[in-house]
Amino acid sequence: MPSMxxxxxxxxxxxxxxxxxxxxxxxNAPVKILCGSAPGGPTDVAARLASRWLSERLGQPFIxxxxxxxxxQIAIQLLTKSKPDGYTLxxxxxxxxxxxxxxxxxxxYNPLADFTPVAIIGGFPYxxxxxxxxxxxxxxxxxxxxxxxxxxxTYGSAGTGSSNHLAGELFAKEAGVSLSxxxxxGDTPGATDLIAGLIDVYFMTPSVAMPQVQAGKIKxxxxxxxxxxQLAPGVTKLVAAAVPGFEMSSWIGxxxxxxxxxxMIAKINHVINEESVRPANKPAMLxxxxxxxxxxxxAFRAKIEQDMTRFSALAxxxxxxxx
Length: 323
Fold this sequence. Notes:
323 residues; alpha/beta; D-Maltodextrin-Binding Protein, domain 2; 2 domains; five-stranded mixed sheet; 12 helices; 10 strands; globular
């Protein structure tokens, strides 16, 4: 076991006898939620929604602090250096937490050893979409066409090493097909080229994809989740129907430094899980483009571990490396 991990686990064990006492009155002072994106971005908006829920339910201000820079890495590094007293948390998207360490040398943190998974504020599955005149109307048809035309089907992404880049690589691997990657500087220019018919398919966020699907400018082939989502109304087909078990989503997690007490974690987790499914909060969740994702802290940790294993292996096999 690496010495850093061993020290963190030892510190956690030494603190554990005091945890119930410390957590009884938690929180009794303002709590900071670090956010690595600019105000108005998806992670920021989700963090502010969670901060409102927690402030109202736990009786202390939960204040979002934007620490923008290095693709979210500044906020993440600040969290690793914070005390595990429950008064510094961070809202971190899946890509920054688990994809970045798999593809970036500069992401010098271990998502399991350096953080305490607390709750997931919300998430969304990617939607697999195609240009309107693509000769397939579902995922099975796409796979059949790609097998007849190896390497000729192009898929776009928000950039090399992005979550939807890995989605395309994962799909190609699990479907047994060869696809050609076309990276863009974000999803918006990629969507523009897809509409123009310059690329074939794209794993796209529902907020970008659905207005174009509903306007008849592109086709939805399937949702990359285990069930249909309210974020993609009318799209009932699943990628997993043709590629069993396939899932690719993004979520925004709430995490603390390593060593937070289980009692503190449980308080926050309970509020987030309960508020995210409250009917009165459904419009707010739709506005930020997120589905509720109900997880225990242990299940959240298991998700992170699964991502680390899957994305690291995928990045090695596909030779995806940044920096």
